[in-house]
Amino acid sequence: MYRHRSDIQNVFNIDGLETNILDYMNSRPPDPGMAAGLTSSEAIGSNRFGSILDQLIDPCALLELQKHGYAVIDNVMKTSQSSNDQLGEWANKGKTGQDDCRSDTVAFLDRRDALECGLEDQFDFLLTLASHLNDNFDLYASPYKPVFPGTTTRPLTNPKGFNVQMAEYGFCDYYNPHSDNSIDREVDNDGAFGGTAVIHDYLGDDAILPKKRSNWRCITAILYLNEGWKTSDGGQLRMYLDSAHVESPSTARDTHEYIDVNPSNGKLLLFDSRMVHSVEEVLNENKIRRALTLWITRPEESGVSGEDYFMDISPSP
Ligand SMILES: O=C(O)CCC(=O)C(=O)O
Ligand SMILES: [Fe+2]
Fold first, then answer.
1. C-alpha 257 to ligand 2 mean position (Å)
2. Cβ atoms within 10 Å of 269's Cβ, excluding its own
């Protein structure tokens, strides 16, 4: 071993290479979950709202979520106009541009950002939801191993970093029908993507790869901040019914019935992240539509994105 090392040493400068690798590794940001030394309850959500969540979230709503894949709960937690305005100012510093299927702009808040805008209650509330759902929502058994901080009986957690998305839609902004956890087929070496992807090396030329979910999102939680929002202002969240298993979300407009959700201040929308939904165009040129979103996940290592999880969400006959 050492002899080989010294042989190789003559060809490469191993010591220099090792130093470079160490420097590189030390320059990496720490993994947010690990370095924060979080306990399981912190990772799942703060306890600040633990005791009052039962009052804020009607148990019937969770039954709705179970049965239909979504639940709309009004007047859960309102946001003051000044915090809403501050959020807009804050977000102007860090917005990211969008692609063809959406024209809104988003930014991600950590707790310090939320505090700066007077939105710490909203932030803590969203982070507590995973814990509440673990206690009150039946997720069905999964063959996938729960991984810390999830457990068999409490499989839901929050994404690493726990950032909350703020999305802003101005006049004419929209988000086309999509799923927050779409069905993908694996990409083959030729870059083929979609229903006919094949894996040439192992299975022959025409083998179709298994379907796979694209991420670990399980429940999407959205808190709306818009005081006095009217149906005529547009910007409705359009939820396509029974759409968790739709493979091409863009077709849902033609094939699925929907309900519209008015994004009014204090409203909480919970839905199975696989459901197809869109944000219809904002029609009022004097209004800005804002929302805070948290994706409640299973731990990434659980392997759950590989399964068509949560199969039984469609209404029982
Ligand atoms: O703001 C909304 O109502 C939904 C936005 C959305 O679908 C998303 O950001 O994925
Ligand atoms: Fe979405």
1. 17
2. 21
> What is the reported pTM?
0.79
- What is the residue extent of each domain of the chain? 46-181+216-313, 184-209
| Contact by Cβ (8 Å): 100, 292 | no
For ligand 1, atom 3, the nearest C-alpha belongs to 237
* Nearest listed ligand to the Cα of residue 291: 1
Q: If one looks up domain 46-181+216-313 in CATH, what number appears?
A: 2.60.120.620
Higher-pLDDT residue of 36 and 191 is 191
| d(CA 180, ligand 2 centre) in Å | 5
Q: What is the ipTM of this complex?
A: 0.99
The DSSP 8-state label assigned to residue 249 in this structure reads: G
Residue nearest to atom 1 of ligand 1 (CA): 291
Tens of pLDDT along 259-301?
999 999 999 999 999 999 999 999 999 999 999 999 998 766 5
Which ligand 1 atom is nearest residue 235's CA?
A: 3
| Mean pLDDT lowest among 14-23, 188-197, 268-277 | 188-197
Tally the residues of the chain.
317
Q: Where does residue 225 rank: exposed (0-12), middle (13-18), buried (19+ CB within 10 A)?
A: buried
Probe target for ligand 1 pocket from 173, 176, 293, with the most ligand atoms within 8 Å of CB:
293
For residue 246, how far is its CA from the centre of ligand 2 (angstroms)?
14
Backbone Cα Rg of the chain? 22
